[in-house]
Amino acid sequence: MRPDTGRTGVIVAGGRSTRFGGVDKATVRLDGVPLLRRVAETLDPAIDEIVVNCRRKQRPTFETILSGLDVGFAEDPILDRGPVAGLRTGLQATTAEYAAVVACDMPFVPTAFLDHLFAAARTDAGAVPEVDGERQPFPAVVHVRAAQTACTDAFVHRAGRLYDVFDLLGPVVVPERTVAAYADPAAFRNINTRADLRDARVSV
């Protein structure tokens, strides 16, 4: 892929999964498939490369989980700085112009909706969905260089939250009625706890 062309997918997976009881939720299986692999397989048809942000100790396990997929890794240089730092690390590992960004615990996002986000962001700094009346930070498509700057500015000038990044980036907001044409709002939920995982098993 030539610099500043193409599409990448960035999966943020370097968290500690504290609400999941210390088990790395990226490795937890839903219907026999680890969450991380489900997310990667959803991204794969929509992009040219996948970058997984993670801690160094996670990488061997993630490499096994993602065997057979063309995946690169972006290891956190400083641990436990949160998802904004992880997002920035992942974005720094690609030369693509635009990136679909998603958390490792969002296994239901439709590939077709990611394609729509890329189209919506084509001439802008990014695109995000509106779900349940609120703008969502993930999944999103962002202009890679603009989003890197927004991540840095979120730490310097704001509280360093994902919502700060997207406030600074100023992406297109895909309205809820359009989102609903691609998926039920439940497709955009995170699996943060074991209860969330049980609910997901019931609903899929």
Structural commentary:
With 204 residues, the chain is an alpha/beta fold. It has one domain: Alpha-Beta Complex (Spore Coat Polysaccharide Biosynthesis Protein SpsA, Chain A), CATH 3.90.550. The chain has eight helices and ten strands. The strands form two sheets. Strands 1, 4, 5, 6, 7, 8, 9 and 10 form an eight-stranded mixed β-sheet that branches. The radius of gyration is 16 Å and the shape is globular.
**Shape descriptor:** globular
Mean pLDDT: 92
Order of helices and strands: EEEHEHEHEHEEEHHEHH
| Main CATH class | Alpha Beta
Helix run count: 8
What count of domains describes the coordinates? 1
Rounded to the nearest angstrom, the distance between the terminal CA atoms is 36 Å
How much beta, percentage-wise? 15-25%
CATH architecture: Alpha-Beta Complex
Indicate the low-confidence ranges by residue numbers. none
Kindly report the name of the CATH homologous superfamily.
Spore Coat Polysaccharide Biosynthesis Protein SpsA, Chain A
Number of strands: 10
Helix content: 25-40%
As a whole number of angstroms, the C-alpha radius of gyration is 16 Å
Q: Main β-sheet: number of strands, strand sense, barrel status?
A: 8 strands, mixed
Structural class label: alpha/beta
CATH topology: Spore Coat Polysaccharide Biosynthesis Protein SpsA, Chain A
Layout of helices and strands:
Elements: E1 7-12, E2 29-30, E3 33-34, H1 35-43, E4 49-54, H2 59-65, E5 71-75, H3 83-91, E6 98-103, H4 111-120, E7 126-131, E8 134-135, E9 140-143, H5 144-157, H6 162-169, E10 172-174, H7 176-180, H8 194-203
Parallel strand pairs: 1-4, 1-6, 4-5, 7-10
Antiparallel strand pairs: 2-3, 6-9, 7-8, 7-9
